[in-house]
């Protein structure tokens, strides 16, 4: 077998390796994409935050205290239920299904008994909600609309977390702040005045953290940039 010439040896060295990786050009600077690591990603945080927010709403943890058609409401579900019952928007069974988890927790902590399905409206004073004046709700439209968004966002957030819970929570907070700053509506009865509980801060944090930000999609959209700088020797050889 004849020995390889110098030209054949150079051709063999320039041939690409079996791994399929091509060597970088001399003087080339490559900007590669950074891999998004696993762990506490934005998606996972939003899922846990939306679940905590769901429990806060469905278990009826008191967030505030405002006058409503049912008398005094302390949770967004109570505000929403009084409005649904008074306007006959949904059947009574749907409203009772929303109220039952919170009523169960309240009954177990107080009397260690399960509430009766037929007595739910009596527990929340919703039997006379149809005859109550609508002025109470119209004076606090921000709290009413925010309660709708909070309940709907908590239910939808179990499947797909979004911005609805944050929007509803901010509306409720703005309604409370507006009433505290401007003093409207004026209420001489201190027992019917509005109050905010510290738990609304937990709801606000959970609503904010339930918003997802797709980091992987942003990383995929950024294509690698290659900046090649010719060598001085190659530039001189072209001029020759």
From TrEMBL:
Superkingdom of source: Eukaryota
Record field: compositional bias (Basic and acidic residues): 1-12
Region (Disordered): 1-28
Entry keyword annotation includes Transmembrane helix: yes
Transmembrane segments annotated in the record for this chain: 148-176, 196-215
Keyword annotations from UniProtKB, A to Z: Membrane, Transmembrane, Transmembrane helix
Protein name, as recorded: Uncharacterized protein
